[in-house]
């Protein structure tokens, strides 16, 4: 009798544990990827009431989903190893921290898990069909198109686009995080993400030379570091798996940074990365003009500005640091020289504050040309923002290993912050830089009326 009671107690405990267990993202093995998986879409709802324990929902059961609030769908991409995306939990947490919303994780790992990319790609429109059925039910219960937001990563970006097409672009917003390029590059709009798929479409391209899509796909397309090699990612195959996916995933981490970090990454609308690096596209940083766009969650603050453009599309460029929170602070270094002969070379500038903190910028993406009495404005990028600069150092280099060394005679150097144009501009006059030798000096305030 005692044995029977013990057995019943264990059975009740097991049932209790089953009821209390939280649903989790599908976890598969590499073996599953090799043999292939049949498509199965699982929708997991998170709200501030259940921020750490998902509720399984579907088109016949909306669960705790509040149709009067914003609903954000997170759609992942190709999963060649079967493992859950490492960023899913952080993205759910970050979204719920900035707004009281419904977050729906679209788990299509069964279908995305395969070593055959084209197989996963072929499932994207089927995933979109499942999502349309669910959204149809949301709309029937009173949800608004304006409140539906889709975040798609890689293949997930195109899935979001296919859902948007089903509603003729009425969805509130789609964010594409490095939309997949292979099998989608060059495809017509009906077969990929397109600016017409939602009321506002923003895209971050972080791997356009490999796994990502090169051309613009949204109303605003952000290209961090030109959209290619991301700082901090392995440059050779010896970096292992990170070599293949680090650049591609950086788009997700930049989006996460926009949710939870205390610095806002600033982007600059421009027609090319080269023109941005050469300081030709920084007008949005000036006073009395429209604010610069920011990639990530708050990119839609530029929606109204883009409506005034025909077509309502633009590309924006920005650089990042190697590590979180990825922020770069932009300054202009204006230099007027008085060398008799033209000098070509690069400038390295280092800033130091009274506490001894230092930050450095190497402006060496292409040689600058210094002509007598001509001002050269160089865009310097620092990974720290020193509010009060106590000392500046400059190094001039022609990049020549052999041959004579040169001098750069500076009539005036001026440092001005783009991030904080209200800060006093710093100047120094009558400097002579010996090539490859660091020259350190204390700056002085520029005359206020000086242009």
UniProtKB/TrEMBL annotation:
Keyword flag Signal: yes
Domain Lipase: 34-326
Reaction catalysed by this enzyme: 1-hexadecanoyl-2-(9Z-octadecenoyl)-sn-glycero-3-phosphate + H2O = 2-(9Z-octadecenoyl)-sn-glycero-3-phosphate + hexadecanoate + H(+)
Signal peptide (from-to): 1-18
Topology term for the membrane: Peripheral membrane protein
Chain positions recorded as Ca(2+) binding sites: 192, 194, 197
Biological process per Gene Ontology, one example term: phosphatidic acid biosynthetic process
Task performed by this protein: Hydrolyzes specifically phosphatidic acid (PA) to produce 2-acyl lysophosphatidic acid (LPA; a potent bioactive lipid mediator) and fatty acid. Does not hydrolyze other phospholipids, like phosphatidylserine (PS), phosphatidylcholine (PC) and phosphatidylethanolamine (PE) or triacylglycerol (TG).
PANTHER family: LIPASE, LIPASE MEMBER H
Protein name: Lipase H
Gene: LIPH
